[in-house]
Write a structure and sequence with these properties.
This protein is an alpha/beta fold. The protein is built from eight helices and eight strands; from the N terminus they run βααβαβαβαβαβαββα. The protein has a domain of 214 residues: 1, 4-beta cellobiohydrolase (TIM Barrel, Alpha-Beta Barrel), CATH 3.20.20.40. Strands 1, 2, 3, 4, 5, 6, 7 and 8 form an eight-stranded parallel β-sheet that branches. The two termini are 30 Å apart.
Length: 329
């Protein structure tokens, strides 16, 4: 599994891929200081393109934990409920035939009358060689891989979150990174039902003005917007404030927020921090004009790594999952 903060390995069950636990460098949250108003992004519609949608993505780790026993009836019920909450499906080298993997997810979503949420996490130089290092070796390989994702979606409706941390953690040749991300947006947006959101980190990482500039360089004008708080714990209110600042700098771009583990906000540790809670469940009814959806992008219950008593990154950790659920009760 792709590690929350470690190396990735190939697995076959794509519904159980680990979302990386993003480290949180210090940063400021500055309002944009633009003197001109940019044109609105062109990938987005005037309203919410996800209005009325329900989402798809099984939490198989929770389902298996509920089935295998070893917990009380009350805990088993909590885990069974967690298994039903739609959670993003992460795509990377572990996905094998990525077109086939995506096609399978799309088929499952269509059978449920829902929209699959996919996370593309395979850009060259991923995590700048850090804990979640990996990705395709070349830009050409990445382009081919993204085309596979697009082919797997076809004409179906799907949400694709593009490359967590790729803009917040710039290394190597930034211009090349921008080109790869922009090309990915363009390929995916050719599909009539695909909605793309470029990852834009979290409120504590990069100031809003700088992030808006990076998003512009990466082709957000052709996307449906940007994504915030992937695998992180920052509160919804903090993300909304930051997102609105980024949006204003981009002329009104929409965004989505990962609320999977932000019910109690962030702690002092990014890796399996104690006392955290699940956040608002996935919905497109956000009540906010710029926010298209609250999504669960990190799979609740997966360890961030061997810290604070946790198993290796990506493994489902029953006690941590239960802690997140109980804290939100």
């Amino acid at each position: 599994m792709p590690a929350g903060s470690g190396t990735s390995s190939t697995v076959q069950d794509t519904s159980t891929q680990a979302a990386p636990a993003t480290t949180v460098p210090s940063g400021s949250n500055l309002a944009p200081a633009t003197t001109t108003t940019p044109a609105p992004t062109t990938g987005a519609t005037a309203g919410n393109p996800l209005a009325g949608a329900t989402f798809y993505g099984p939490n198989t780790g929770a389902a298996q934990a509920a089935r295998t026993g070893g917990t009380s009836a009350e805990d088993a019920a909590l885990l069974s409920d967690l298994a039903q909450v739609p959670t993003a499906i992460w795509l990377g080298a572990w996905s094998g035939d990525v077109a086939g993997t995506v096609r399978q997810a799309v088929t499952g979503a269509q059978a449920s009358g829902a929209v699959p949420v996919l996370v593309a996490y395979n850009v060259p130089g991923r995590d700048c060689g850090g804990y979640s290092a990996g990705g395709e070796q070349t830009a050409a390989g990445y382009a081919q891989w993204i085309q596979g994702v697009a082919n797997g979606i076809g004409t179906a409706k799907a949400v694709v979150i593009i490359e967590p941390d790729a803009l917040a953690q710039l290394c190597g040749d930034p211009a090349e990174r921008y080109r790869m991300l922009g090309a990915a947006v363009d390929v995916l947006e050719k599909n009539p039902g695909t909605l793309t959101y470029l990852d834009a980190g979290n409120p504590t990482w990069i100031d809003a003005r700088t992030m808006a500039q990076r998003l512009q360089s990466a082709g957000v004008a052709h996307a449906d917007g940007f994504a915030l708080n992937v695998s992180n714990f920052e509160t919804t209110a903090s993300n909304v404030s930051y997102g609105q600042a980024v949006s204003a700098a981009l002329g009104g771009a929409h965004f989505v927020i990962d609320t999977s583990r932000n019910g109690n906000g962030a702690g002092t540790d990014w890796c399996n921090p104690p006392g955290r809670a699940v956040g608002q469940r996935p919905t497109a009814a956000t009540g906010l004009a710029e926010v298209d959806a609250f999504l669960w992008l990190k799979r609740v219950g997966e360890s961030d790594g061997t810290c604070n008593g946790g198993p290796p990154a990506g493994e489902f950790w029953v006690q941590y999952a239960l802690g997140l659920l109980r804290a939100a009760a």
